[in-house]
Amino acid sequence: MIKTLELFGGIGSPRKALLNLGVDIKAIDYVEIQENRVRAYNALYDHLHKTQSVVGWNLKPDILVHGSPCQDLSRIGVRKGAAKESGTRSSLMHETLKIIKSMGEWKPKFVVWENVKGVLDKDLIKPFNEYLREMNKLGYTNAFEVMDARDYGIPHARERVFCVSVLGDETFDFAKIKKKPMRPISNFLEYAPADYEKVPSEYLITIPSMLNKIKEFNPKPTGSYKRQLDVIEQFCYTITERQDRCPNAGILRMNNGQYRYLTERECWRLLGFEDKDYNNVAKKFPKQPGKRSATMYALAGNSIVVPVLEAIFEVLLSSDYAVKDDVTEKNGQLELVI
Question: So what's the pLDDT on residue 323?
Answer without folding.
Answer: 46
